[in-house]
Structures are given as C-alpha cells and as structure tokens.
Specification:
Blueprint (H helix, E strand, L loop, with lengths): L36 H18 L5 H12 L6 H14 L3
C-alpha cells in the first residue's frame, strides 16, 4: 500500500511562523482582585455593624442638650408634656 500525497495539509506545522493567536498584554502592576457588588454591600454592612458595636451606648452630647433645655423654665409647656406622654404610651403600647 502506498500513500501518494496528503494534499494541502502539511503533516508538521512550521514552528518558526507566528500563529494568529495573541497573548494578553502583561501588566506591570501585579495581581488584582475584583469584588462583586454584593460583596461590596456586605463589606459595608459589616463595617457599619462594627462601628455601631464600638460606639458608646450613652450619647453624652444629647444628655447635655436635654439638661440645658430642662434648665429653661419656658421649655416645659403643655406641648412638650403631651409629646412626652404620647411617646411613653407608644413605648409601652398603652
């Protein structure tokens, strides 16, 4: 049995020729990481939760503000008393 010719196909490719495939350009920066939007939101939520945990339980600036208001005799009137009473009733579901 004899095989005459293979036609236009070369049995071995020409190694010295450049192929059509191109390599991606290399970055000089180094490695990088991309995070999804969900991961960014979760990271922000975690950061906010940690900030709240580390915050003081007592807001001294608000306490001082209320003390100063209570020193003023004209501050306490029926409007303020009704507002405080409504809030207390709402707080205790009355």
């Amino acid at each position: 049995m004899t095989i005459e010719g293979l036609g236009p196909i070369q049995p071995t490719p020409n190694v010295n020729q450049k192929s059509g495939a191109q390599q991606a350009p290399r970055r000089a920066e180094g490695d990088s990481v991309d995070f999804s939007e969900e991961a960014r939101i979760r990271a922000d939520l975690l950061r906010a939760t940690e900030d709240v945990r580390q915050a003081e339980d007592v807001r001294w600036d608000r306490i001082e503000e209320v003390r100063q208001k209570l020193q003023d005799p004209s501050y306490i009137d029926n409007t303020v008393l009704n507002s405080v009473a409504d809030r207390l009733m709402d707080l205790f579901d009355i």
